[in-house]
Automatic annotation (TrEMBL):
Domain Tetrahydrofolate dehydrogenase/cyclohydrolase catalytic: residue ranges: 6-120
The species this protein was found in: Sporolactobacillus putidus
Subunit (UniProt): Homodimer.
Stated name of the protein: Bifunctional protein FolD
Phylogenetic placement of the source organism: Bacteria, Bacillati, Bacillota, Bacilli, Bacillales
Keyword Cell cycle attached: no
Gene Ontology biological process terms from the UniProt entry: L-histidine biosynthetic process; methionine biosynthetic process; purine nucleotide biosynthetic process; tetrahydrofolate interconversion
Length: 288
């Protein structure tokens, strides 16, 4: 049996279309959602991600501002800009593209963003809220994974979800989010041994490592749902995930492709978080 592809690109496209209508309605009521994206330096990957984010905003009608700094910018200067954006009424979401140059503390940058504008969901307040099951901004990749599972009607409650990778932006928040959706969660990392012993038990296997070919068909339980977050360049320069896709798709029930799976979902969840931030902002301003 060949697995059903989870078409992240298609699901994200449909979400953007629906969002466009929502944004139009908000605008007709005088509410224009706004996102500020801060880009430091000339890193080609970062430039391309930022370009994509700005393009997505344009597509759905969200106002966006790109703030660029040279690689040499000081931490104080960057924090100052974030504080200004925190106070700016036309901006409801702030995203600082990571990674940042060495002289700047990512932790300080994230903590300076107002939690009300934390559309990346990396602020400790957002993460703490998620930890305690409160409404919060959820980091875009984990949020996108849940959305794509729901879009293909994969049940999460009661399932054993095994997550490979424990980064602050993917693995850890994904584990909390799945737990909040009543899954039983196992988290694996570079010291987990033997890794396959755990991955083979997964009803839903989420792989977020950044190591092409880490997971092969024999590491997967027959009929499992496989979510490949990894983004790697193979020898031919092609974008590939962490899972041996061709063999894994013959064993899984559902699988995400790379590219066209988790990536587009991550992008669209940023728009969703920006809309949420804008709605919160305008609701608070309404007279009670
Ligand atoms: P990090 O490098 O921050 O984390 C990688 C994690 O993988 C770590 O927890 C590490 O363990 C673990 N790991 C490393 N080697 C192994 C191994 N051999 N076996 C098991 N676990 C291992 O990466 P990110 O979370 O930022 O990203 C992971 C991948 O996802 C990357 O390819 C990235 O490009 C991609 N990505 C894709 C996105 C998308 O939208 N599609 C969004 C974000 C990331 P330890 O903690 O012990 O070091």
């Amino acid at each position: 049996m060949t697995a059903q592809l989870i078409d992240g690109k298609g699901i994200a496209g449909a979400k953007r279309l629906a969002m466009k209508a929502t944004v139009e309605k908000l605008k007709s009521e005088g509410m224009v959602p706004g996102l500020a994206v801060i880009l430091v330096g000339e890193n080609p990957a970062s430039q391309s991600y930022v370009k994509g984010k700005i393009r997505d905003c344009k597509e759905v009608g969200i106002y966006s501002e790109l703030v660029r700094f040279p690689e040499s910018v000081s931490e104080a200067e960057l924090l100052d800009e974030i504080r200004k954006l925190n106070e700016k009424d036309s901006i409801h979401g702030i995203l600082v593209q990571l990674p940042l140059p060495k002289q700047i503390s990512e932790r300080k940058v994230i903590q300076t963003i107002s939690p009300a504008k934390d559309v990346d969901g990396f602020h400790p307040i957002s993460l703490g809220k998620m930890m305690t099951g409160q409404d919060s901004f959820v980091p875009c990749t984990p949020a996108g994974i849940i959305e794509m599972l729901q879009a293909v009607n994969v049940q999460i409650a009661g399932k054993h979800v095994v997550i490979v990778g424990r980064s602050n932006i993917v693995g850890k928040p994904a584990s909390l989010l799945f737990l909040n959706h009543n899954a039983t969660v196992t988290i694996c990392h570079s010291k987990t041994t033997p890794l396959a012993q755990y991955t083979k038990q997964a009803d839903v296997l989420v792989v977020a490592v950044g190591h092409a070919g880490l997971i092969s068909a024999e590491d997967i339980k027959p009929g499992a749902v496989v979510i490949d977050v990894g983004m790697n360049r193979n020898a031919a320069g092609r974008l590939v995930g962490d899972v041996e896709f061709e063999e894994a798709k013959e064993k899984a029930s559902f699988i995400t492709p790379v590219p066209g799976g988790v990536g587009p979902m991550t992008r669209v969840m940023l728009l969703e978080n920006t809309l949420k931030a804008a709605r919160n902002f305008f609701m608070e301003r309404e007279p009670h």
